[in-house]
Task: inverse folding
């Protein structure tokens, strides 16, 4: 069996996982997927990877009621979550969708570092780490769920020579988008990491936005001034450039009075903190139509040799 050149990712040279209507081809493809360490569950009646106009591979998942999501292999980035015909995630208008840069938008991954100024002296990596720069492998995909994995590459070892296996599961259900990020330390020494889902939410306008949650009375690091402050608002509104780290807050809901919608972040495990970011006034980034309410493990976490860390985050949308 010969791979059709059109199934080969021109950027990485790796083969996309295409299924066939013919069972004979399906059997051959199942064998091929399994020979690459994948799962024959990846066989469906439609192509399991699609390409955007610029050649980047993604999968599209749907739930029985038609809720849908798109997940790119580049950075395992979830770029879309639609339910009831409404889009809740935002890809920035200046984002590169051709693989020349990590995707700025959706649920962008920051791992194994959040930022250079996060006090994580054990790490000396680029801002937001390398996971978003890498092509993740598709381990399995069914109609409503994809499992992607990332293992050390020469590129990652050049920055962070640790033995790890990262697994990211994304599932769309009738009532939610569910993500689980699991990191296994497969080495013989402990390692330290930080992690974040740098989540970009679509909003009709910043003036229609408020962010509810357990913010009031909590201390936060205002990265614009470097000061630690105490939040005195019941809900966050944005009227200036904002980059705030709320430690111990992990229940933000993005409320959009223009859309008449609210989307709640349910950080069930691992994600202990929240970062609110908006580059207010930056038209090129499209500041008026998104806010980042990020699920973060801000303080460096030690993952013991042979141990693991897991973050579980769901999104639930509702009318207001
Ligand atoms: O453009 P990126 O890499 O997706 O990052 C978006 C922003 O993420 C924020 O967390 C950083 O504080 C900003 O400096 C950065 O611009």
Result:
């Amino acid at each position: 069996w010969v791979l059709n050149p059109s199934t080969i990712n021109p950027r990485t040279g790796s083969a996309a996982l295409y299924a066939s209507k013919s069972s004979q081809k399906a059997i051959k493809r199942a064998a091929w997927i399994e020979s690459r360490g994948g799962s024959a569950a990846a066989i469906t009646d439609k192509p399991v990877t699609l390409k955007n106009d610029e050649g980047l591979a993604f999968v599209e998942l749907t739930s029985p009621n038609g809720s849908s999501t798109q997940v790119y292999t580049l950075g395992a980035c979830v770029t879309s979550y639609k339910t009831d015909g409404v889009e809740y995630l935002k890809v920035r208008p200046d984002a590169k969708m051709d693989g020349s840069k990590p995707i700025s938008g959706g649920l962008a991954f920051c791992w194994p570092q959040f930022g250079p100024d996060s006090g994580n002296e054990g790490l000396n990596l680029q801002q937001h780490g390398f996971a978003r720069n890498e092509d993740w492998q598709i381990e399995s995909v069914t109609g409503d769920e994809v499992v992607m994995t990332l293992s050390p590459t020469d590129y990652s070892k050049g920055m962070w020579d640790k033995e790890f296996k990262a697994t990211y599961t994304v599932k769309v259900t009738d009532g939610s988008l569910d993500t689980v990020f699991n990191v296994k330390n497969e080495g013989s020494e402990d390692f330290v990491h930080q992690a974040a889902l740098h989540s970009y939410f679509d909003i009709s306008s910043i003036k229609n936005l408020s962010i509810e949650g357990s913010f009031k009375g909590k201390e936060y690091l205002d990265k614009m001034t470097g000061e630690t402050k105490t939040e005195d608002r019941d809900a966050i509104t944005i009227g200036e450039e904002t980059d705030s780290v709320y430690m111990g807050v992990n229940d933000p809901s993005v409320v959009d009075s223009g859309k008449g919608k609210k989307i709640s972040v349910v950080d069930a495990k691992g994600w202990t903190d929240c970062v609110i970011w908006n580059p207010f006034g930056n038209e090129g980034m499209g500041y008026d139509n998104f806010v980042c309410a990020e699920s973060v493990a801000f303080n460096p976490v030690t993952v013991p040799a042979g141990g693991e860390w897991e973050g579980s985050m769901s999104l639930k949308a509702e009318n207001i």
